[in-house]
Amino acid sequence: MKSFTKVLIANRGEIAVRLIKACANLNLQSVAVFSDADENALHVQLADEAIHIGPAEARSSYLDAERIIAAALKTGAGAIHPGYGFLAENADFAQRCSDAGLAFVGPSPNVIASMGAKIEAKRIAEQAGVSCVPGYHGDDQSDATLLKEAERIGTPLLIKASAGGGGRGMRRINDLATFTTDLGLARDEAKAAFGDPAVLLERYVTAPRHIEVQILADQHGNVRHLYERDCSVQRNYQKIIEEAPAPNLKPALRAQILDDAVKLAAAIGYDSAGTVEFVVDAEREEAYFLEMNTRLQVEHPVTEMITGIALAEWQLRIAAGEAIEFEQDEVTINGWAMEARVAAENPAEGYRPETGHITAYHAPETSGLRIDSGVQQGSEVTPYYDSMLAKVIAHGSTRDATIRRLKQGLLDYRIAGVGVNSRFLLDVLDLPEFQSGEHLTSLLANSYPDGWALPAISPLDRAHAALAHHLNLEQAGSQSIWSTLGAWRIGERLGRPGSYHYYLRSADDETIRITVTGRQGHYQVSQDGQTLLDARSASLNDGQLGYRADGQKHRIEAVTQGRQVILQTDAGSQTFTALLPEQVLLDEAGQSAASGNAVNAPTPGLIAEVLVKAGDSVTKGQPLVVLEAMKLFQQLLSPADGVIAQLHCQAGDSVNGGDCLVTIEDNDSD
Amino acid sequence: MSLIQSRIDPRSEAFVANQAHFDELINTLRERTARAMQGGHEKLRDRHHERGKILARDRIERVIDPATPFLEFSTLAAYGQYGGEVHSAGIVTGIGIVSGTPCVLIANDATVKGGSYYHETVKKHVRAQEIAGFNRLPCLYLVDCGGGYLPEQDRVFPDRDHFGNGFWRQCRMSASGLPQISTVFGGCTAGGAYIPALSDQVIMVEGNARIHLGGPSIVKVAINEVADGETIGGAAMQTRVSGVSDHLARDEEHAMALLRDLVANLNMPPRLTHNEPYEPPRYDPEELTGIISHDRRIPYDVHEVIARLIDGSDFQAFKPEWGESLVCGTARIHGHLVGILGNNGALFSDSSLKGAHFISMCEQRGIPLLFLQNISGFMVGSEAERGGISKDSAKMVYAVATASVPKLTVVIGGSYGAGNYGMCGRGFRPDFLFAWPTAEIATMSPDIATNVMLELRRTNLKLPPPTDEELDELETRVRDQYAEQTDPYYATSRLWDDGLIEPAQTRDILGLCLALVTSVPEKTNNHVRRSPVFRM
User: Fold this and answer.
1) What is the pTM of this model?
2) At what angle do helices B389-402 and B349-365 cross, to 10 degrees?
């Protein structure tokens, strides 16, 4: 048992910040490590000490065991907390910590190793009486054996890399005819990704949910479960939204997985925080052991919020040799908790990572909402590390209330300067299957078969732009009552409020007339008589358009500059220009006002040249005829795009003023 | 700072009862106004739209600047007359900001009797021009009318203030540097043709707009020429051939865009650009309806009204302890300094002298005046006469009549007899005059009028002594006449005011008016004051 007073946190981002706070709560000193890219990062600023560990590339910094252990020794830390990712499940690193006389905040190296190897982990689990997915985890990797086992398990089935994780080296087989080919590919992938071609076979669960059990165990033989989490909302096997408890989980099945998790932890002598993952077949209502994660999980806060037990702190206390001081029956569920991972990525383009400088940052501080963030205003988001910036976690009395709170939290949590996936997360939270808690891990693939698309500029975006401009006019006009009263009308109290029709031009050059009706905070915004927005308590302050609609508060980034509004929309940052009628309708109006699609001789004269013939396609402004009058040559231009319908003149003709010379038909008239 | 301390309890029985009564009055006002603002019958409005035309008030919404007010006048003109069908007298008038310049807009409503000019239409048109003249505002005519209403030609055409007066004013205003611009949306025949013809600039909408001194039927009768309206006076011809019109618009939206563009280059001196910061009243203007007694015999303190109209309820009272039946003092409304006179009872010699003193002082200082009329008249009786009420009331009337500062009047209650003169009634040409639904304008109250008439009959020696029946009949007749004619809708229908307004709107309307009247370039600081402020 090693007691310590200073902990080196071998991680970065939100988890490093979380662990620094945990240390502070336990009166432990914290040491942050940082790469060149993280010199000014939030975790570096918050820790009691910070030490540089190398260049931006993780391989030579956060993944460099030697440098990290050296940093711990140099700063006099007694323990290393690895967080998640990086070195968190590296048995060799845990061993080297131990060898260097440092407490590793996590289970023993051999437990990490045994749970890290999938085949071995399943074998142990089966021995402990934990139900596993029907499959084959044997050492005999011959094609014949694997095919025989595959026939036994039946299709659909999966071929997985034994040393794998995160979905790499995994292939689904629907038809055994292709088994041998797929096996070869899976082995190649496994070898490339993990240096080991060994594979395992598993039944493919057709209606899978991802449900995991949080375990907390100490060095004194105490093992507790902290109930389960549902992490079925995944994209490419990456969790997006997690919640606790799991919705629509039968009590018997829940009891089974909780029991299985405790059995497994006890069987391997687990002595830290860990997670036992299950795949639950929603059709068969069966649960199978998937794997055990021997670390603190990204989604641990949802468990902390429903149980009131601070996992990160207990992990440190257990590493220091403390015994768990609560009994299993003292662990109860209070309400519902849900987490959404805010990442600097573009879900509309294959989750492409986004980078940049955070120019504005606002984290709401409301009860029932927790934000675990690794960034702040001024932070740099670099391409070197995981794209997750923060987690927004909501706690409520019911699942519905929690979803609502999480949505509001995502709306209120604002990061500018780097693109984030909040809009996508809000869309996912609105999916009907998610709302009813009946979603499977296939939720996103089924809901967005062609990938999630960033919405186009919506009518509501235009409504927001017009309203922001309107409010700006009310506020930024002269101080005269003829400006400050806004669209005051004698009839406004009897249902005839003032209104204005803006010609709103968006960056795609589309100009649409948007009508704003009302004043003093209450406005209706409409298009062609259709109400787009009924906004109350509307205001424009500090680049934010705020209003209430349908009982909900809304805030939208909206910066106004003269006639322009730069608006944050679902389709990204968009610039709109609110034009007056004369700025739109008088464009080139002069000569074409009434002449329509005809060209008339402006004066009497002689046709010097005809530049087109009937049937020619012409564009607006293209010269058609040259007229000579009073010794001057004048080009007569086409008033519209179209096709020459008729020529009423030829070179050498004398014409009178007003004579029709050319008529043009619309291109699209058929 | 001297704040008015309200003694009103909004939870008191009296307040609640007053408000309930006033709410009824307001409901009536809103119903009648809403109906008037709809314009003509639905079928006519539909036909209007089918022709690619926009309703008069919707045209105005497209002409004025975004997020700016429109101060409409006399919405209930012609109310209850001509079978109740000539809504708003078929014309919409008011003040709005166009391309940054405050303008008077005069818009015919073709859905109401084809936009033809009734007596009240003429009166409303001319009154809007008068307001434009006083306030140095350009006039924008949105023309869509068929000229004078011929069956009423004797009430429309011949007299000094009839149809011709509008043209006279158009010419005179143009001469004085006030731009006159017409946008023609429909047919303009005969008299109607002169509205655009006498304008500085004209826009016509192709297809719908026509200008001709004689339309097809007159042309046929007069010279036996058969031609359609478009040939005689169509927009394209008038723009391209005759040059009567300057701009040919594709449609109404285009026409109004052209109009806005023309106004942008009028080169009028900038106005309404500046205002001092100010506070709202300390007491809610919505409470005004609970203050006005629903029983006219129960007086209320006009200070309570003033407190809900002025900035910060901050009122510098003038001679507060002398002549108390006339409350005088200075305050600000939407930042504009104003001298306020309000009635707390009949005008006595002292209160009349106080009023005269206060008005002449405001005149010297260039402070606009606001009259809040609730006046039964000047005091009568031997004591009053011995005290010289006739010459003292005359002093107040002199002062009102000769004050050159802008004057605003709001009739909040009675407006009887010579009290109407002293408190700047319509005859004394206030720049703007509005009335609440509680207004009553007449020579005297129905009670007094009835008694006077009965007494005259009793003492008439040319006739035999009246029977009781005859006296009863006379009483009923006089009461009915006064009841009908003191009704505020009777007054507003006849343009005795610039509109019936709700108490809670009053502050904003006064603010809009004050901003205009105090920014008239010619009126500021150049009038010659010939007398000192006489202490009386």
Assistant:
1) 0.66
2) 20
